[in-house]
């Protein structure tokens, strides 16, 4: 690649060796090509900083900046996580529109743009991640930055009628058009973005697939994110997950793994499991649900309700169905190590992934990667996870329909081996083909192609 790779994400992996697929993949790209990774430090400072601090990176530079308490509250907890997150997850009703948060969000993006603009070079390829930085390219362009700037939106692109609930919706098309390449997870997201340009501002797609808005030419394309399949499969085979749980020989296991977020459909999932238990007939296997749900964004009010809902439903189901030697729902409200997680996925007969809305959902892919090919488990997947666009051999369910999910559990737990193998083989193929390496390679190749496009295209 010519020019440096410059990555921007809310946090940089400054606390030791990177872990988790995305962070490792970005680390590997930077390690290979050299470059810079910008992001917040995770530290709160009394005064806004006017420059970056250096963190030792492995073969590349890591440049971090601190936030003030007011910035953390308004930019991170406020506009990013209490407005944009619910908006993009079809929960405009949960948006907390507080005076000043939008201004703080813009101010943080402006400050970062100002600090970056001093350091960026015209031939840099800048790759910005996530909804924390939607206005960052627009801020950089205002400062005269001409480098190629890409964006990856990890979460769903909002539908137009949801976007209209955002008081600042009119700036959205301009923010997006300031990037050169906008990566979305699915074709469904691309369709939503194109619909926004068509219906809100009347911008149409050109014949080469790119868009033209306010004199800028840019592309919106889907790049479904994946995982490091080989590494995960290897990890999953190292330990016996069933032994970790002390499961009885004939006990079946259903697993759910999610940050405790209202978008993940956890309440309906637990209810569906309860309904499955109620409808269980003599001879049906005894199954337990292991739900791992580490806390997340607890300072945001909307997250406090889901926590008490989980406690209420799991308490109710366990109260009704537990036996002296059996607790049907094991609900763990904390994070567990990645190697343990991999072994637990492998031990589970069913992966139960039922978000109301999700950009992709990597848990679905991790579950498939962790299965043994000889005796694989069954994936139950919400139609609203981005992953459902690729993983069509899963049992696809509507996460709002508790009865349908309970029936899917029954089907999954009694599925014959031949069908389980057939479905798993098809799913594994897709997950392996579109792995994390393919995602970074295809995104960076598209950005490099745009970087080398003759400049006349810009002036059309
Ligand atoms: C966003 C988008 C998109 C979870 N609990 C533990 C743990 N995890 C790991 C999982 C998985 C990751 O966290 C969660 O990834 P998801 O993709 O499921 O969801 P988000 O966090 O919402 O991610 C999403 C993703 O970005 C990537 O673009 O797919 O749609 O919302 O890797 O395994 N890991 C460990 N312990 C836990 O307790 N070690």
TrEMBL record:
Source organism of this protein record: Loktanella salsilacus
Similarity-based family: Belongs to the glycosyltransferase 20 family.
Pfam annotation, one family: Glyco_transf_20
Source superkingdom: Bacteria
Name listed for the protein in its UniProt record: Trehalose 6-phosphate synthase
A GO MF term: alpha,alpha-trehalose-phosphate synthase (UDP-forming) activity
Parts of the chain that traverse the membrane: none
Entry's Gene Ontology BP terms: trehalose biosynthetic process
PANTHER family per the UniProt record, alphabetical: BCDNA.GH08860, TREHALOSE-6-PHOSPHATE SYNTHASE
Entries under InterPro entries matching the protein: Glyco_trans_20
């Amino acid at each position: 690649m010519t020019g440096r790779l410059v990555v921007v994400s809310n946090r940089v992996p400054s606390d030791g060796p990177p872990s988790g697929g995305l962070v490792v993949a970005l680390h590997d790209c930077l390690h290979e090509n050299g470059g810079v990774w910008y992001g917040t430090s995770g530290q709160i400072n009394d005064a806004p900083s006017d420059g970056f601090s250096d963190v030792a990176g492995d073969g590349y530079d890591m440049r971090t900046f601190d936030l003030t308490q007011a910035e953390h509250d308004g930019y991170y907890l406020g506009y990013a996580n209490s407005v944009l997150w619910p908006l993009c997850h079809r929960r405009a009703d949960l948006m907390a529109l507080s005076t000043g948060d939008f201004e703080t969000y813009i101010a943080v993006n402006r400050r970062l743009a100002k600090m970056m603009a001093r350091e960026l070079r015209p031939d840099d390829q800048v790759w910005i991640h996530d909804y924390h930085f939607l206005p960052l390219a627009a801020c950089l362009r205002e400062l005269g930055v001409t480098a190629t700037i890409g964006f990856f939106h990890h979460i769903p692109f909002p539908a137009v009628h949801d976007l209209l609930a955002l008081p600042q919706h009119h700036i959205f098309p301009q923010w997006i058009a300031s990037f050169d390449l906008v990566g979305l997870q699915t074709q469904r997201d691309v369709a939503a973005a194109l619909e926004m340009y068509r219906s809100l501002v009347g911008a149409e797609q050109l014949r080469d697939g790119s868009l033209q808005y306010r004199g800028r030419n840019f592309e919106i394309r889907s790049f479904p994110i994946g995982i490091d399949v080989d590494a995960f499969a290897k990890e999953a085979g190292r330990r016996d997950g069933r032994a970790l749980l002390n499961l009885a020989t004939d006990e079946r296991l259903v697993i759910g793994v999610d940050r405790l977020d209202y978008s993940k459909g956890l309440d309906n999932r637990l209810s569906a499991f309860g309904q499955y238990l109620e409808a269980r007939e003599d001879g049906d296997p005894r199954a337990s649900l292991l739900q791992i749900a580490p806390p997340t964004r607890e300072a945001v009010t909307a997250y406090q309700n889901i926590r008490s809902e989980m406690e209420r439903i799991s308490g109710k189901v366990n109260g009704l169905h537990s036996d002296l030697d059996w607790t049907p729902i094991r609900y763990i409200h904390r994070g567990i190590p990645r190697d343990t997680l991999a072994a637990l996925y492998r031990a589970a007969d069913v992966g139960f992934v039922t978000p109301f809305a999700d950009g992709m959902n990597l848990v679905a892919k991790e579950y498939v990667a962790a299965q043994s090919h000889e005796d694989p488990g069954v994936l139950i997947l919400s139609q609203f996870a981005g992953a459902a666009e690729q993983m069509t051999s899963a049992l696809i369910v509507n996460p709002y329909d508790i009865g349908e999910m309970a029936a899917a559990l029954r089907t999954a737990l009694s599925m014959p081996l031949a069908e389980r193998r057939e479905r798993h083989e098809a799913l594994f193929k897709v997950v392996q083909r579109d792995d994390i390496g393919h995602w970074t390679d295809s995104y960076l190749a598209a950005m490099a192609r745009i970087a080398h496009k003759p400049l006349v295209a810009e002036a059309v």
